[in-house]
TrEMBL record, chains A, B:
Gene3D superfamilies: Tetracycline Repressor, domain 2. Residues 7-67 form the HTH tetR-type domain. It comes from Streptomyces lancefieldiae. It holds the Pfam family TetR_N. PANTHER family: HTH-TYPE TRANSCRIPTIONAL DUAL REGULATOR CECR (PTHR30055:SF146), HTH-TYPE TRANSCRIPTIONAL REGULATOR RUTR (PTHR30055). Keywords: DNA-binding. This is TetR/AcrR family transcriptional regulator. Residues 30-49 bind DNA. InterPro entries: Homeodomain-like_sf, HTH-type_TetR-like_transc_reg, HTH_TetR.
Length: 191, 191
DNA sequence: GTAGTTAGTGATTGAGTACTAACTTACGTC
DNA sequence: GACGTAAGTTAGTACTCAATCACTAACTAC
């Protein structure tokens, strides 16, 4: 048994919960599964967090923050075309290296609606705020071009979905995205 | 008590389950909730379907089929720019009129990954096949332009996500999409 | 009208789940 | 080295949920 400070434990709970929630979503993940992955007893989670919902919220928030940080760091000092390419590459790397982060993103979006319908707007506000920050983080290095930013986010969402559905990288469905990347890098190729 | 043929009942179960699964996802929806909405006893669902999973599968399949039909019918006889506009409008109408269909789509994508991870590839194959059909259905009237089709799907996914997160229609996040629609309709405006 | 079939229900079961309460073990500190 | 505190556990509760079983009510064909 390795003892940790409550803060450190909370941290590892968030990481473990991210993996679990990414796979099973909110309702498909038991607190026991999270506890097992952390290596701690299940009731102890309720000392670290007030409830299951709070864990999910913490994970969702963390996920958005880190996604933002990826875009921020990858585009640092770059502008326009170069920033776009750098962010796209960073995103692609993130997806291939940590696919669960991608799944967690989808889970977050899906869970928001249920929460809103159930009258819980706290979760929705947090996610929308996080998304706006993400949007602005991308918006700035792209020179404030709204169309470009929207398009970047749109392709990102398509990638999320296709990857989530389990299309293998060599599937023809990806062709249009590779194509668009090429076009983006060399606009003269566009017809 | 209104008696129906098993086939008719299955049909109303699918419709009811679509609403329920759209809100709660697979694990967040109880068979009792579905049965209540249908107006039938919970155990009877298991006469009509072999299990809960089968109901979800039927709903997901139906959802993809109907989405495909919307694109097919709206673009009938049209090509290129006109077809794109018609499909976009049909999609927008669908979303505002039946938001649950949109949510169900997201739920489907999210659930696939869990099924795949659990070793159940039947669901994944069905969804990927359905998506490919959807893709081809859009691809054809767009003149076989891969980039255009991919872009269309990407914006669709972004719309799904933003709507799912509960951004109100007047929120500035939508601006880029309205903009892109304008550009698409009148390419000369694009810089 | 009665025999066979199909639609549908009530009661139940067994597994799982979020969360609580009471207890125990390790750590720092004076 | 005792004492207070913070980390962590074991046992248990109240509840939900998918699925089964045995049964009843309605339609249909003869």
């Amino acid at each position: 048994m390795v003892r940790m400070s409550a803060e450190e434990r909370r941290e590892s709970v968030i990481r473990a919960a991210m993996s679990e929630f990414a796979r099973g979503g909110y309702h498909g993940t038991s607190t026991e599964a999270i506890a097992k992955r952390v290596g701690v007893s299940q009731p102890y989670l309720f000392r670290l967090f007030p409830g299951k919902k709070a864990i999910f919220l913490a994970v969702a928030e963390r996920c958005l923050q880190e996604m933002r940080r990826v875009f921020e760091e990858s585009s640092e000092g770059l502008h326009g075309e170069e920033a776009l390419r750098a962010m796209a590459e960073a995103y692609a790397r993130l997806i291939t290296e940590q696919p669960e982060r991608l799944q967690m993103q989808l889970q977050t979006y899906v869970t928001v609606a249920a929460a809103e319908a159930a009258g819980d707007h706290e979760f929705g506000e947090m996610v929308r705020k996080g998304w706006m920050e993400l949007w602005d983080t991308v918006h700035l290095p792209l020179g404030g071009d709204i169309g470009e930013t929207t398009s970047f986010m749109a392709y990102g969402m398509l990638i999320n979905t296709l990857a989530g559905m389990g299309f293998p990288p060599e599937h023809r469905i990806w062709e249009g995205l590779y194509l668009s990347a090429r076009v983006k890098r060399n606009p003269d190729d566009a017809s």
